[in-house]
Design brief:
Layout (H helix, E strand, L loop, with lengths): L2 H4 L15 E5 L2 E7 L5 H9 L3 H8 L8 H8 L6 E9 L5 E11 L5 E8 L8 H15 L4 E7 L3 H9 L3 E4 L4 E7 L2
Parallel strand pairs: 5-6
Antiparallel strand pairs: 1-2, 2-3, 3-4, 4-5, 6-8, 7-8
This protein binds coenzyme A.
Coenzyme A binds next to helix 3, strand 5, helix 5, strand 6 and helix 6.
């Protein structure tokens, strides 16, 4: 069992092979995909500094310049029961680890539905990272017994809407300027 899978087991944490660490190739290099941990905090701040304001608006709506503390706390101190974040960690040519993308979910207490959020470093969009992270999150939520995966997406976020459509999400009428995407998992 990998280190990340073993620390998920016990207590109320969800134990799931779908949470296990895995690797994939991106840009000719190996990328690690695993649940976020406290040690990712500094790297996450560096990642966030390389996300353009436009992309932050697509992810968090409104004008977000700095990463809200609550988001950061939730990201690195997941109880892995109601919430989970996966990070894709690559290596620079000089061997430094860097966060490339993040996928998060937050489940309702009854496990009926979970909200998802995806963020890819702005200079790396459109090259498949969002697809890899969304598929990991879907596998994880399905194996955790969650029935539905949802998100509110700005109506002008065509890339996210295309990604969702390709993965079978249906679009439900939502507030002005947003589309609710819903994927039935069971
Ligand atoms: C929305 C978002 C998460 C999508 O992630 P992404 O990495 O850009 O998406 P992908 O690259 O996986 O898919 C996008 C396109 O790349 C293409 N693609 C997928 N794999 C690819 C690959 N290996 N090489 C080249 N292109 C690829 C896809 O076909 C897709 O094309 P399309 O948009 O014409 O349909 C990302 O753009 C992002 O962070 N946006 C800002 C924040 C946001 O909108 N979050 C969503 C709110 S929940």
């Amino acid at each position: 069992m990998s280190e990340s899978a073993s620390h998920l087991i016990g207590g109320e944490g969800r134990s799931s092979a779908a949470a296990a660490e895995e690797t994939f190739t991106f840009d000719g290099r190996e990328v690690l995909l695993r649940p976020a941990r406290a040690e990712d905090r500094a790297r996450h701040e560096e990642f966030h500094a390389r996300v353009e304001p436009h992309d932050l608006r697509l992810r968090f709506f409104g004008a977000v310049r700095e990463l809200p503390q609550s988001v950061l706390e939730r990201l690195v101190q997941m109880d892995h029961h109601r919430a989970m974040a996966f990070v894709a960690i690559g290596q620079t040519a000089s061997g430094m680890l860097e966060t490339l993308a993040v996928a998060q979910m937050h489940a309702e207490p009854n496990n009926e539905a979970a909200e998802l959020g995806l963020l890819v470093r702005s200079d790396l969009k459109g090259r498949g990272l969002g697809t890899v992270l969304l598929e990991k999150l879907i596998r994880y939520c399905r194996s955790s017994g969650i029935h539905r995966l949802n998100a509110d997406v700005l109506a002008d976020n065509t890339r996210m809407l295309r990604l969702a459509r390709r993965h079978g999400f249906r679009f439900v009428a939502a507030g002005q300027g947003t589309v609710r995407i819903v994927l039935d998992l069971h």
